[in-house]
Amino acid sequence: xxxxxxxxxxxxxxxIFVIGCAWRVVNYVKGLSWQLDRVPYGCNKDLAVKGALRxxxxxxxxxxxxxxxxxxxxxxxxxxxxxxxxxxPIFLYAHVMVxxxxxxxxxxxxxxxLADILTILAVAAGVFILLRRFGLSEVRIITTPHDLxxxxxxxxxxxxxxxxxxxxxDNSGWLLAxxxxxxxxxxxxxxxxxxxxxxxxxxxxxxxxxxxxxRGGQRGRGIVW
Length: 225
Hints:
Elements: H1 2-5, H2 8-30, H3 34-37, H4 45-60, H5 66-70, H6 72-91, H7 93-103, H8 112-135, H9 137-140, H10 145-166, H11 172-188, H12 196-218
């Protein structure tokens, strides 16, 4: 079972993840319309690129945007969750060794102690975000079962991986559970709200182009706004 999950199933999971995310990006770009969005895609490229990059990096830096500063506790939880979900899987020693064995490539890894801390903080942040959804009426009213499932799918690989790494004795059951939940997470990304893994960059770039061009001095210069 382990060989299958870390072999053919891992290949299939990554293939679905990569192809599915590419499909979401292509569909997003194809759906853009300068007439509808009132954004002049394709012209004023210097302003557009600068605006897109500024928008993306501004939101990737904690508290760089006004929205993050307005909700500092939520912002901290948001970044802790995403750091745990992104950095730990990519740089965990055990994961890098599996990739090196199966695909023949490797890269630097996180110290195990730091990976443990990031995992615990990420799980705590996820629980906080869930409690916030139920505690704040403005968030609770837009919360659906889909949102709860997404959080469960996201936290399951962290929890099972942490237990598998620290449980004494035979932990093959937890290890298999960790691998399965991790692959479910990868497969779910293109088909759920988890697609913001790639669509975040698309939407922030689109907004950045809008601001970069319109606020960059091109208003009224032969462009229909």
